[in-house]
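To whoever picks this up:

The nightly regression suite flagged Polysaccharide deacetylase family protein as changed. Nothing in the input moved, so I suspect the structure step. Input below, exactly as stored in the fixture:
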Amino acid sequence: MSGDFSIQNIDNPDEKIVLLTIDDAPDKNALDMAKTLKELNVKAIFFVNGHFLDTPEEGEILKQIHKMGFPIGNHTYNHKSLRDLTEEEQRKEIVDLNDRVEELIGERPQFFRAPFGMNTDYSKQLAADEKMLLMNWTYGYDWEKDYQSKEALADIMVNTPLLRNGANLLMHDRKWTSEALGDIVKGLQNKGYKIVDPTQIETPANKETAAQ
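Regenerated output under the current build:
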């Protein structure tokens, strides 16, 4: 599954850069994935779901991931398709999660990814009101049954014909993805790609801060 979505607001699309993003965190593997990335000295955005932040233990995991230097993105509270929800329900899915993340780490998410990549006019407006950058992806494979092993996933993520400058790579909090992550990063770097630091991406929130 793929869409033609590059990293927005990157100054030089000719540069060999890619963005790593991890959805459905922090379930069972996100902390290990963060540790792997930190060891390799690269960054990713962890897009979180609120239903993985309901207990104090889960909250602590999020704090650890954030303390390791990883930006936290909003992937809605319950991962429901926004198009099936009323505006009030959409607001709860998005804003309640921002409130919960802020409660845990002291800052609100600057990135928003809708479940299944499906926004509504209302969710787009809400993301703008919340000063979040809307984000989709260029490619991802780890939910397809052919790629639910370390070897197959590492191979396709690095050797897919969809890899290009500015690609936004989608991964999930999954066991096989966690196992493949180190090989994916090294494979991309061996092809000459630099893993972009998400804090360098212009968002409505940091643009506003810079203007002050």
